[in-house]
Amino acid sequence: MVDNTFRNMLGMDLPFGGKVMILGGDFRQVSPVVINGTKAQIINASIVESYLWSNVKVLHLSENMRAQDDQRFSDFLLRIGNGEEPTIENDMIRIPDSMSMPWEGEHSIDELIRTIFPNLSSHMYDVDYMEGRAIITPLNDDVDKLNEKALDAFPGEEVTYYSFDSVADDARNLLDISSMSNMHSPSNLSLYFSITIIILVLFYHCDGRDSISVRNPLSGIDQTLVSAGNRFELGFFTTEKSNINRYIGIWYYELIPRTIVWVANRDAPFLDSCSVFGVAVDGNLKVWCSNGPVFPITSLDHKSAPFNTILQLLDSGNLKLFEGQKGHVLWQSFDNPTDTFLPGMKMNDNMELTSWIDQNDPGPGNYTFKRDQGVYSINKRSSVYWKSGESGIMSSIFNELPYGVEQILSDFDTSTDQSSYQPLVTVKSNKSISFPNYTRSSYYNNTRILMNSSGEIQYYLLDRSRSIWSLSWSEPTQDSCSVYDACGKFAVCDVKKDDSMCRCLPGFKSASSLKDWTVGQYSDGCERESIICPNNATYKLHDERFVNLSLMKVGGQVQPFDRALEAEECKKECLNNCKCEAYSFTVVTDRQTGTNATNCWIWISESELVNLQQEYSNDGFHLFLRVPPIASAPTFWTENSVGSKKNSKRRYVTMAVVLVAGVLLVLGSSYILYRRRGNANGTGNQEENPVLFSYESERQVNDFMDDNDKKALTSNLLSSSSRTTSDYFEPPASPPDTAAAFAAVAFG
User: Fold this and answer.
1) 614 and which of 179, 479, 494, 526 could share a cystine (Cβ 3.0–4.6 Å)?
2) Do the beta carbons of residue 253 and residue 226 sit within 8 Å?
3) Which of helix, strand or coil describes residue 261?
4) Greatest CA span in the chain, whole angstroms?
5) How many whole angstroms from its chain centre is CA 656?
6) The dihedral sign for the CA sequence 223, 224, 226, 231
7) Residue 304, Cβ neighbours under 10 Å: how many?
8) Which parts pass through the membrane (predicted)?
9) Tens digit of pLDDT for each residue in 592-601?
10) In what order do the strands lie in the sheet with 319-323?
11) Count of alpha carbons within 13 Å of 607, Cβ hemisphere only?
């Protein structure tokens, strides 16, 4: 049967399909057993009577290697093998009394087991104890009885395997499936879970190992894998929140406090009875518990040889499942991250980092960090919480991601344009830190990016000499305006404002109730007070104006208008389109060639203005907002976003302070004129007195006035170094006089 099978499999009409077959032992021992057969029947059923015998070459052993320490026993075995031992009825042989057990009766087998395996229950996990003992019997029936008696001493669940069955999916069933094909039906083998098998002793310990296979799982919470360079460690762990819930994770080796970078079962913790982790016979990673349950870690569907699958922890922190020694990668933890990004990973549109629930619960939290169309973002559940920038042509304008962080996320992709990224990183302490050269160095290896449970994406550096992590960059910052679209559509975020960080753009009003804005609920944003391009006879298109908002950060999709070479052309393009909400025109100089390029960007009504920030220091630009004629009358930014009594009181206080400042300014000006006249008349040439104008008064006036008003008001009294940058509006044709400016501030 075996010969025919190999011929059919290999397609070769040669003995065993052309393969070399080794038949060990005496020919009578390898022949099929004829139950209760005579010598003639057994010989006739042996290979010497087979058509294959002419192709068999017999190799004789030159020395008997069996039982060399007991010559009598060795000679006895040799006589049996050669058929020289005298027989009794039914061709049975007699065992010498010196080799027979001295016990008789129904408990004789129990006595034999207790003699050969004393205190068996206390040594069930002792490898040396098991390897040094064996009970030899000539019949399989006796082997079954002995095994049954011996296995009764072990706790656990008994499972019977028949030769035509498949082995249960358990890492501790370390029996090679191929060996079961040698059993003649209905042969069977009974095994117990959680024990060391007497016949097959395959457990071994290896300190500091970095890999496991089907035959040597991690057994026990104290066993771990350590990468070859002692950088990372894998094993079981618990948290301060619960000592019962058990996880499998990867952390930095011997770093205190423990820094966990990957968790296998974050959403399904095990109980403390689960302590075996390894490669199952189907090639998947699984965890086994002493009370029976099996928990899968991977769900691969492949047809690789199960005993050829190896799991290895690398110095990069990556856990790889190989098919064979350094062969095909079946699975790796770098493709399945949790909350931490390590150097060597590569962020793509299919990868996400998900925060922990809190510092003591590794379950999936509320925040995810991902990449989409070249833009990195944090989502709080299903809503965008932070974005590194805008996709499309705006991606190079507002980019909150430092170049060094982008390099690590892209795994040092050479296509990354460094000019698009911030060269400096500002941490919460307001300290600016430069990234060193971005190369694969020890600096690079000692970094990590964390999506923390508070909603911040953080970049850390490790000082190995002191075992201390330092935070080098984090977004969003404590600045409330760094959260994406904090104030909603058509509303500007400014944390410098005391009354409310959100304000509607000129010509807009709150889209929700004032009560929502009072309690800090700005998500609905603002809406226009009156529509642009109204359909009536009195409307004239060119009556509409644009309000100039400077140092602005803007989000939303934008349309380029490449034909505009001048600002006026860009303005006309927006004015001639009733859907145009705003435009921006910039002139960019190429630092290498020195040539200028113009950019005209237009926002239409389908793409609302979002994520607006005022006084944005990182390359903020001028945004020209379209307003109807009725909305362009005010000469300063109206505070129409919040109507609470508290804000009204603040306005009155502000106006009072401004009036007092104005009076002081007039008095100061009069005094200076008086002194100048005195000097002209020769009454004295002594030095003029300092200007009687406080910085606080100046700041309050500047907050409400446009740039030309400031120039007219300050004349030569205020130094240019003390002026603010709140130039919000397109300057009027001619600067108003000082009295008109004060009237606008006090009563506008």
Assistant:
1) 494
2) yes
3) strand
4) 155
5) 55
6) negative
7) 17
8) 652-674
9) 788 888 889 8
10) 211-213, 309-313, 319-323, 328-332
11) 14
Residue type, 425: V
β-pair type (559-560, 596-604): antiparallel
pLDDT for 393 equals: 61
Q: Please report where in the chains the tokens 């006090």 appear, as a residue.
A: 746
Instruction: Evaluate whether 273 touches 244 at the Cβ level (below 8 Å).
Output: no
Whether residue 165 has pLDDT greater than 60: no
This prediction's pTM: 0.58
Handedness of CA 162, 165, 167, 169 (dihedral sign): negative
Interatomic CA distance for residues 435 and 484, integer angstroms: 25
CATH T-level fold of 211-335: Agglutinin, subunit A (2.90.10)
With 0-12 / 13-18 / 19 or more C-beta atoms within 10 angstroms meaning exposed / middle / buried, residue 438 is middle
Q: Which amino acid is at 70?
A: D
The first and second tokens of residue 25, run together, are 């032992």
Contacts of 330 (CB under 8 A, 6+ apart): 283, 300, 302, 304, 309, 321, 322, 323
3-state class (DSSP) for residue 442: helix
Q: How many of the other CB atoms lie within 10 Å of CB of 303?
A: 7
Residue with the two structure tokens 């705006």: 394
Q: Tell me, what DSSP letter sits at residue 421?
A: S
- What's the full length of the chain, in residues? 748
pLDDT of residue 716: 31
Domain residue ranges in the chain: 2-55, 108-192, 211-335, 342-478, 491-632, 645-747
Q: Is 694 helix (H, G, I), strand (E, B) or coil?
A: coil
Contacts of 519 (CB under 8 A, 6+ apart): none
For residue 681, the one-letter residue type is N
Residue 746: partners with Cβ closer than 8 Å, 6 or more residues away:
655, 658, 659, 662
Distance in angstroms (rounded) separating the CA atoms of residues 210 and 325: 13
d(CA 389, CA 482): 11
The structure tokens listed for 354 are 């998900």
Distance between CA atoms of residues 180 and 159, nearest Å: 15
Residue 412 has what pLDDT? Answer: 82
Phi, psi (deg, nearest 5) at residue 314: -95, 165
User: Around Cβ 23, how many Cβ atoms within 10 Å?
Assistant: 13
Provide the 10 A C-beta neighbour count for residue 587.
Answer: 11
Q: What's the chain's Rg over C-alpha atoms?
A: 43
Encoded tokens for 497: 């404002």
Is residue 608's pLDDT more than 80?
Answer: no
CA distance 606 to 641: 23
For residue 189, give both structure tokens: 């083998």
Amino acid at residue number 728: Y
DSSP one-letter code for 443: H
The encoded tokens of residue 709 equal 């008003």
The span from the CA of 591 to the CA of 417, in Å, is 14
Query: What string of DSSP letters covers 545-562?
Result: EEEEEEEEEEES--EE-T
Confidence of residue 259 (pLDDT cuts 50, 70, 90): very high
Q: Cα separation of 516 and 491, whole Å? A: 14
Spatial neighbors of 438 by CB under 8 A, at least 6 apart, are 403, 404, 407, 408, 412, 444
Interhelix angle 645-680/695-704, nearest 10 degrees: 120
Q: Compute CA 408 distance to the chain's CA centroid, rounded to the nearest angstrom.
A: 13
Residue for token pair 């390897």: 131
- Give the Cα separation of 507 and 517 in Å (integer): 18
Strand partners, 372: 375
- Residues 429-439 have pLDDT tens digits of 333 444 455 45
Are 495 and 507 in contact, with CB atoms under 8 Å apart?
Answer: no
Is the separation of the CB atoms in 31 and 46 below 8 Å? yes
